[in-house]
Amino acid sequence: MPESQLILNTLKEYFGYDSFRDLQKEIIEAVFEGKDNLVIMPTGGGKSICYQLPALLLPGITLVISPLIALMKDQVDGLKANGIKAAFVNSSQDEAEQQEIFQDIANLAIKILYVAPESLHFLEGLLSEIEISLIAIDEAHCISAWGHDFRPAYTQLGYLKKQFPKTPIIALTATADKATRKDICDQLNIPNAKLHLASFDRKNLALEVRPGNKRIEQIYTFLSDKPFQSGIIYCLSRKTTEALAEKLNNKGFSAAAYHAGIEHQKRAEVQEKFINDSIQIVCATIAFGMGIDKSNVRWVIHYNLPKNIEGYYQEIGRAGRDGLPSSTLLFHSYADVVQLQKFADMSGNKEIQLAKLDRMKQYAESLSCRRKILLSYFGELIEKDCGNCDVCNNPPTIIDGTTLAQKALSCVTRIKEQEPIGTVIDVLRGAQNAIVVDQGYQNLKTYGIGRDIAWRDWQQYIIQLINQGYLEIAFHQNNKLKLTALSKKVLFEGEKVSLAHLKELEKVKQPVINT
Ligand code: ADP
Ligand code: ZN
C-alpha cells in the first residue's frame, strides 16, 4: 500500500482537498489491500474519489463501469482538467474515435477508463493484453431487479470477477436496501466484499409532507420566504413540468421545465442556467439531477408522490449538499397513488413495485418521525426522533382508538364492503338519506352507533385507519371501503388501535381523498 502521506498528497494535488470525508480513507485502504468492496453512500457523499484516487497510484488501468452515458464526457473532461489521464468508451462514439482511445490504452496513456456496460464487448481483445488494477462498478444497484433502476446490461457484469479473479472490484451505489445489497454481491461474484455503509442521515434536510390539494397555491406560499433560492420541483408527467413552469413564470419566478422529451441542447441550457443561478426553479421529471453537481439547491418539492423511497431520497438529497439547512416538501394525494399503482401493474416486476410504492405511502402517511422511517428503510436505526420533520415538530397526541375502530370496521362488515367512506359515515351517524334508506341500512345493528362523533371527525379517523392498514380503499371499485387482514385482528382478536387525537389533526395534515 502507498504511504499515507503519498495518498494525502495525491488527494491534494489532483482533487484539491486537504482531508478525506467519512469512510473515504478506509475504503481507499481496502482497495489497496486488494479487497472487493461494496460502498453504499448517499449521493454527494464522495464516492468517486474512492476509485479515482487509487486509480492514480495503482500500476495499471482502472476500469469504471457506468450507466450514465450522457455524463461520461463531463466526468472525463473534469478528470482531464485535473490532470488525470481519463477516457471513455460508449456507443456515442464512431469507430475512429474508439480506435484512438484503444491506441492510448495500449500505450498506457490512460489511467481511468469509463465504459458503459453495453460497450464492454468493444474492449474484449484489449482487456486481455493490458493490466487492469481495479474495476469500479458505479450505480451498482442497476444490476438488481430489487434496485429501482434495473438495467439488463448490468447483469452480465458477473463475468468480470471470473475473468479477472485477482483484480479488486469496488461496487458503488447511493441506493440499496439490504436485499439489493446482497443481490449486488451475489451477481458480481464478490460474496466476501467488504461493506462500507455511510450514514444516510442528512440532518440539514427538513422533511415535510402535506396533502396534495391546491398545490400551486401551497407552492406560492412555500416560496414566499425563499426569494431567489434555487430549487427543484419533481413531477410525474412531462406535461405537469411544463404547465407548472409556465404558471411560475407568470407569477414572476424564473422557472424552466426539464424532461427527456425536450431536445438535448435545450436541456443542457436549462441545466447550465440552473447551475449558475440564472434560473431559480427547475420543474422536472426524474430525468433531472443525475450527476448534477450544484451544492446550493435550497429546496426540493415533490409535486407528485414518488414511486419508491429510493428515488425520493435520492431526489431530496439534491438539496443542501453544502450542508446548510434546506427544505423538502412532498405532496401526497390518493390520485397519485392510483396512477402509480397503474404504472406498477404494467411493469415487469409488479409485486416489487407495488411493495415499494406501499412503503412510500406509509412514509407519507406516517404519524411518527419521518426520518426514522427513511433511515430504517436503508437499514439505519436512529435512537431519537429527528426534530427536523413535520411530525417531530408537531407530534400528534395518541389516543386509544380501539372502540372507534371496532365500530367503523363492523359497520363496513355489515354493509358488506359495498360503500365508500361517505356512506359508511352516514350509516355510523344514523343519517336518513336516499342511499341509506334505499339499501335498508337503517335496519343494521351498526346504524347510528357513531352518532356522538362529528361527520368530519369520522372521516379523519377512517383515513387514519386506512393509513394504518385496518381498512383499504378499492380504487377500482368506486372507492368502496374494504376490510383487510388486519381488520380481523381488531374485530376478533382484541387488537388495540392507536389513533392521533383529532385536535391535533390540523397539524398532522392528513392526506386528502379525491383531489
Ligand atoms: P457521489 O458520487 O457520492 O454522489 P461525488 O464523488 O460526486 O459524490 O462527490 C460529491 C462532491 O463532494 C464533489 O463535488 C466532490 O468533489 C466533493 N468531495 C468528495 N470528496 C471530498 C473531500 N474529501 N473533501 C471535500 N470535498 C469532497
Ligand atoms: Zn422527525
TrEMBL record:
Its cofactor is Zn(2+); Mg(2+). Its EC number is 5.6.2.4. GO terms for biological process: DNA recombination; DNA repair; DNA replication; SOS response. It catalyses: Couples ATP hydrolysis with the unwinding of duplex DNA by translocating in the 3'-5' direction. Residues 28-194 form the Helicase ATP-binding domain. One of its GO terms (cellular component) is replisome. Keywords: ATP-binding, DNA damage, DNA recombination, DNA repair, DNA-binding, Helicase, Hydrolase, Isomerase, Metal-binding, Nucleotide-binding, Zinc. The keyword Plastid does not apply. The keyword Transcription regulation does not apply. Belongs to the helicase family. RecQ subfamily. This is DNA helicase RecQ. It comes from Aquimarina spongiae. The lineage of its organism: Bacteria, Pseudomonadati, Bacteroidota, Flavobacteriia, Flavobacteriales.
